[in-house]
Amino acid sequence: MSQVADTSATPLDPGAPARGDHTAYDGLRLRALTKSFGGFTAVRSLDLDVPRGSFFALLGPSGCGKTTTLRMVAGLETPTSGTITLAGQDITYAKPYRRPVNTVFQSYALFPHLDIFENVAFGLRRRRQKDVDRRVQEMLELVELTSQARKRPAQLSGGQQQRVALARALINNPEVLLLDEPLGALDLKLRRSMQIEVKRIQVEVGRTFVHVTHDQEEAMTMADTVAVMNGGVIEQMGAPAELYENPRSTFVANFLGQSNLVEGRVLRRAADVTTVDMQGIEVSVPTARVHTDSDAGWVGIRPEKVLVGPPGEELDAPGNTIPGGVVSDVSFVGVSTQYLVRMPWGQELQVFSQNTGRTRLFTQGEPVELSWRPEYAFLLDRGQDVAAGSAERAGA
Length: 396
What we know:
Blueprint (H helix, E strand, L loop, with lengths): L3 E2 L22 E10 L2 E11 L4 E5 L6 H9 L6 E6 L2 E2 L10 E4 L11 H11 L5 H11 L15 H13 L5 E5 L7 H18 L2 E6 L2 H7 L2 E6 L2 E6 L1 H6 L4 H6 L4 E10 L3 E6 L2 E6 L3 E2 L4 E6 L5 E3 L10 E13 L3 E7 L5 E7 L12 E6 L5 E4 L8 H6 L1
Parallel strand pairs: 4-9, 4-10, 7-8, 8-9, 15-22
Antiparallel strand pairs: 1-7, 2-3, 2-5, 5-6, 10-11, 12-13, 12-16, 13-14, 16-22, 17-21, 18-19, 18-21, 19-20
Helix pairs in contact: 2-3, 2-4, 3-4
């Protein structure tokens, strides 16, 4: 639920040069940002550029440093070292109320004795702003709550209260809106509808949103760019589809969705395709998806990219066919059936098969073969922990 930190900063002077940075940048820029608490370093020399007007997500498990990063941008934590610039000005040590930033937290913190209109108007009235009624009305129209203006917060649903909190933050015209797990207290169905709603609002107002979450679906649904954090550093950053389809570490492969990771050894490298011996079977991996210089690696494939069929049946995924599997578990989940298939080398691989009616269901103990198209595979460094990210996601 969302509590608003009303920083209500004075707008930055666009003509003032940024201290310590000779390159003007109108977005949010972090350089070598570090935060330590005693002997524990929560954020480690973080470099990050968030373009103005973008929706940016910091994704990671509890304790990865994402909330600490957000609090440093908001001015609620002081960096141990490094710099924060916004719209070309250094705000590293500026007071929270001097920053053009508003923060929306998990708890709503709406004033229960004020109606929705006055909750949204509160910051403007406190600063004796002009044209309050018009600006509040515009905000209520933006979040589609005009008809609820004279109700009290207790009369609204959780999703509606969330939109009130967003309106109260956005009415201050912040350069950046920081969202710290804002949908965490909503139930699953409402959370999914609010993901779409928050993204719509961001597009309409054109403001920079920086969203912290441990929910990978939430980050991928809402953000233009996602940075996956782990241990105080960014493991990988990019568009949601790029991170999911082409992870560069075992942590990202496991934390962002689920992955099958199988030991392999590089046999041949070419400009387009790398050939890998995977448990005695030659498989192909696009060279652009090979993220190790070593010959020892983890062959990765997402469960929904794997096809399953009876032995000898030609599957619609030429190139990588893996024989000798036995179905060890079957879970029917409506839109798909999820299989565990024990392979000859003893590892169980996950297969998510869409229930389109084109293929029959397999039963526990049935022999099967697996197949996938080479272009969907990736290869990661064997030196990385094969389970990295999986336990963290379960805990989150």
